[in-house]
Design brief:
The protein is globular and about 50 Å long. The protein is about 60% helix and about 0% strand. With about 120 residues, it is an all-alpha fold. Helix 4 crosses helix 5.
Length: about 120
């Protein structure tokens, strides 16, 4: 897992939403303000112009999971990594974790197709 998986997921969401922090606020069901998202994306956890971007509250997790397109447990793991330096025992990249839930929901035929495509595009 990367050192700042939460921030990286936020940066991906920022790009996906046309570099718009207000859209991030809306897409997360206002889990955090657009200013909070800006500080996090630009400066990272525990940083920002005020010297602090605090971790999100437990109540914000469902909206953040919706924005990041991951599970709530994955958001909790990202928060633990970014703000507290706690890494899960698995060595999986944030990109792989982001796709894990979607891959688990595929039927066997679609999974075979996805696996074939990934292996075709990957450079080992």
């Amino acid at each position: 897992m990367a050192d700042q998986p939460f921030r990286e997921a936020a940066q991906r969401a920022y790009r996906r939403l046309n570099n718009d922090y207000i859209r991030m606020q809306v897409a997360s069901d206002s889990a955090r303000s657009h200013g909070w998202w800006r500080n996090l994306v630009e400066h990272g956890p525990w940083a920002g112009h005020s010297g602090r971007t605090a971790p999100p509250s437990p109540e914000a997790i469902p909206g953040i999971a919706k924005l990041f397109r991951v599970t709530e447990d994955q958001v909790r793991e990202m928060i633990a990594a970014d703000w507290y330096g706690v890494q899960p025992d698995v060595n999986v990249s944030p990109r792989a974790l982001q796709l894990a839930q979607a891959l688990d929901e595929l039927d066997e035929a679609d999974m075979a197709l996805a696996e074939g495509l990934i292996r075709r595009l990957a450079t080992f």
